[in-house]
Amino acid sequence: MTFFPDKRILVTGGAGFIGSHLCERLLAQGQEILCVDNFFTGRRQNVDHLVEHPRFEVLRHDITFPLFVEVDQIYNLACPASPIHYQLDPVQTTKTSVLGAVNMLGLAKRLHIPILQASTSEVYGDPSVHPQTESYWGNVNPIGPRSCYDEGKRCAETLFFDYHRQAQVAIKVVRIFNTYGPRMHPQDGRVVSNFIMQALNNEPITIYGSGLQTRSFCYVDDLVSGLIRMMATTPETVGPINLGNPHEFTMLGLAEMVIRLTGSKSPIVHKPLPHDDPRQRKPDISSAQKHLGWAPTIELEEGLLKTISYFDGLLREGIREKIALCG
Ligand code: NAD
Ligand code: UDP
Ligand code: UDP
After folding, report:
1. Which CATH number characterizes residue 59's domain?
2. SS percent in the chain: helix, strand, coil, step 5
3. Residue ID of nearest Cα to ligand 2 atom 8
4. Does 199 reside within a domain?
5. What is the pTM (predicted TM-score) of this model?
6. Which of 53, 110, 259, 281 has the greatest number of beta carbons closer than 10 A?
């Protein structure tokens, strides 16, 4: 008997951290996946375990160029997410958000299919409203080093809503807050990966500034559940909807937790605070609770233990490779 998948789903940025978990979950649900990625920050290893699957296909493609394929849904996740990566080529970062959105929206318009945009809490900038509700318009520097990402994502939201109003495209916009978990890039400079790698190597934990700035960290499995629930809503639910874990931590508190969970001997050192670093970040998730029936279930300590185990495995593999090379 031939098996017909439920839907053909395009995931842009599918070889990235969040994208690879999304592809995995959608495959497990019986869908057919087209993973499109230019491998700028994503890695083949993230989807290595999926490539032999009969319902999984990878296409190397940059979404700043048009893409003509036939699918039933689009999750648009393509965009470098860590500050050091998105600041490497800021013009390309803006192009990915803006031209990429135009192309993916054009594709959704031609096919009359729903498209979900992975927007970000960065649209709130350094927020003066706390916790952040979707109605807050944000406090964003338009000309700083973070602007390529923040303003690119803001413009993408504008395009999504204009395609919705002008061309009746079925849009779904979610604003993702700091997300962490296995398959984060170990050198992406984000705080969770940095602290864990430093702790496992017994190297100094680098706190930028006083460490009293706050973030709220969502485990990747929770986030993926929220993305899928958003896609499954009625056409009226267009968002934007915040997705994140509302439990807020200082970076100092995070460093202490990582040191405790890894049993590390790392000292804490302070380094200068990056330009325009937001002082606080905590999502108001009442809209996600109301419209998606969604709230995160994995608390920071539990999620960190899973992430530590992943990075520990990477380090052990690295050591094995070195031993093999020497031998
Ligand atoms: P990531 O860097 O691991 O993944 C992004 C993926 O997009 C990578 O595989 C990269 O190679 C690919 N990509 C980049 N530019 C591309 C282009 N022009 N064409 C095709 N592919 C391209 O980052 P992530 O953490 O998995 O983030 C995924 C999405 O979620 C991003 O859009 C990001 O802005 C958003 N987001 C993430 C977080 C977070 O904390 N991780 C928070 C808010 C929003
Ligand atoms: N596009 C695409 N795939 C499609 C349909 C459109 O990549 O299947 C691109 C197309 O190249 C265009 C963009 O999406 O540049 C916007 O499409 P739209 O139809 O909104 O605009 P137009 O083609 O009229 O410029
Ligand atoms: N940060 C830190 N040490 C690090 C990396 C980051 O103290 O080694 C801080 C950073 O200044 C910011 C917070 O941790 O205040 C979160 O940084 P990240 O780059 O992970 O995400 P974002 O700033 O985009 O929320």
Report:
1. 3.40.50.720
2. 40, 15, 40
3. 107
4. no
5. 0.96
6. 281
